[in-house]
Structure formats: structure tokens, C-alpha cells
Design brief:
Blueprint: H1 6-21, H2 24-35, E1 45-47, E2 49-51, H3 59-72, E3 75-76, H4 78-85, E4 94-102, H5 106-118, E5 122-126, H6 139-147, E6 151-154, H7 167-185, E7 191-193, H8 205-214, E8 218-221, E9 236-237, E10 239-240, H9 247-250
Helix pairs in contact: 3-5, 7-8
The protein binds zinc ion.
């Protein structure tokens, strides 16, 4: 049998990963084995853990993750995290900044109540084309996120892989989603999280430039290493997690 080419290997990995994403408990158990050699951060660094939907059966898991982070250091707002990166706020230990992607109704039904209970701020990156569609949040729900004290950013209009878009389409996805959010919410929207977010396959430097040109102050990827003061807000590293995962699995993403 011939060994797979690097591209085939990559596709196989993606296929395995998306199958595992549909079985988060199984994925968590597999990852947990790899987490045995890692530890949650003890050194100074800024981490951006993020989630998607949080079904009710995983509310306890989200609570457990957030409590574990809170024992290590503060959970700060996106505004505060940007102040850390730009040197206007000191970074004195492990620090966490939480976000959620896409626009699932469990944000309203599960996530916001858990955040209120724990006193944790978050930023919600909204795929604007999903809002108001069956099975997704409505605009009133998004306004309620702001009213609850959370931040709202853009996660594009249709959730494309930007690297596969022509320049004009990518520009629209980045800029027009911002304008729609601003029109609907009546506040400035200055933060963008790239769909999929992996700089190797999903986005290019030109998309960061397009975001800057559209007036964003931050651009989030899914690179994982901890950030520090002086790192660019236009290249934020986030660590994708699932609330079904045991803490040992979290350690494979959020660690020193
Ligand atoms: Zn997404």
C-alpha cells in the first residue's frame, strides 16, 4: 500500500477531527490521554479559550472549565485582553478571555445563565447570516447578549473558509457582517473571528489586512500558544474547547 501524500494525510485528519467533533465525549476521552503530560497554565500568559454551542447536558462541564480557569487567574473581557496586549493593563499571571462562535440558541438558554452565575464576561462572535433563521438566535437575543454585559463580534456572514473566497467575497464577508451587526445593535463592532480560523488552511494575511481596512481592532485565529503583552491584537490565538471534555483534555489546548 502506498503511503498517503501530505495533502491526503491532512484530509484524513480533518475527516477524523470532524467525526470526533460530533462525539465530543469520545473526543474528550481521546484527548485526555494526551493531556496527562501537560498542565493547566501556571506561568504568566493570556489565553483565549472558546466554545460553540453548549447543550444543557454540558452546562456542568462549562461550569467546571470556567471554575478551573478562575482558580488559576482572572477571566477578563475582550476589551481588557486587548489592553493587556497593547500594554495598557499589566499581565501578572495566567489570564483568560472567553468567547463563543456561530450563534446557537444555547447561548441564550445555557451559556448566559452560567456566565451570570459565575460572574464571567464573554464575547460572542456571530455569523450574521444565521441570525433569525430557524434553529438559531434572533436579533433580539443578540441584543440581550450586549444588555447582559457581554461583547459581540463578527464571525462573517456565511461562515466560509476565507482562503477559498475571491477577494471581493472575502471583503464582503468581513466588512458587511460588521455593518449589519452595527446597524442591528447600534454599537461599534470591532472584533472579528475568522471562520475555522487555522492560518495554515483557512485564512491568509490578506484577510487580516481586509479586517484592518474594515475598521476592526482585533482578528482571532485558532493558533493556540499563550499570548503576551506586545503581541498583535490582529492575530489573536484562541484555544477551541468543548464543554464535554474532561479537564485533562482541556490541558491539551490550554497549558504552559
Ligand atoms: Zn464558526
Amino acid at each position: 500500500m502506498r503511503s498517503p501524500t501530505p495533502i491526503q494525510r491532512r484530509l484524513n485528519e480533518l475527516g477524523l477531527r470532524s467525526r470526533l467533533r460530533r462525539s465530543p465525549r469520545l473526543q474528550g476521552r481521546i484527548l485526555a490521554a494526551a493531556g496527562a503530560r501537560k498542565r493547566l497554565p501556571a506561568a504568566t500568559g493570556l489565553f483565549f479559550p472558546f466554545y460553540h454551542d453548549v447543550p444543557p447536558e454540558f452546562a456542568a462541564g462549562l461550569r467546571r472549565h470556567l471554575r478551573a480557569f478562575g482558580e488559576l487567574g482572572p477571566l477578563v473581557s475582550w476589551d481588557a485582553a486587548i489592553e493587556v496586549l497593547t500594554g495598557r493593563r499589566p499581565l501578572t499571571g495566567p489570564t483568560f478571555c472567553l468567547s463563543f462562535d456561530d450563534g446557537d440558541p444555547t447561548w441564550r438558554d445555557v451559556v448566559v445563565p452560567v456566565l451570570a452565575e459565575l460572574g464571567v464576561p464573554a464575547t460572542f462572535f456571530v455569523t450574521t447570516g444565521l441570525i433569525g433563521r430557524p434553529g438559531n438566535l434572533g436579533w433580539d437575543d443578540v441584543r440581550d447578549l450586549l444588555a447582559a454585559g457581554h461583547g459581540v463580534g463578527s464571525h462573517s456572514i456565511t461562515h466560509p473558509r476565507l482562503a477559498d473566497c475571491d477577494d471581493e467575497t472575502a471583503r464582503r464577508e468581513i466588512a458587511d457582517s460588521k455593518h449589519e451587526l452595527e446597524d442591528e445593535l447600534g454599537v461599534a463592532v470591532r472584533d472579528f473571528a475568522a471562520p475555522y480560523g487555522n492560518p495554515v488552511v483557512d485564512l491568509r494575511d490578506r484577510h487580516v489586512r481586509a479586517a484592518r481596512a474594515a475598521g476592526y481592532r482585533s482578528f482571532a485565529t485558532t493558533l493556540r500558544p499563550a499570548m503576551r503583552t506586545g503581541d498583535s491584537p490582529m492575530w489573536i490565538h484562541r484555544q477551541g474547547l468543548h464543554p464535554a471534555w474532561p479537564l485533562w483534555a482541556v490541558r491539551t489546548r490550554v497549558h504552559d
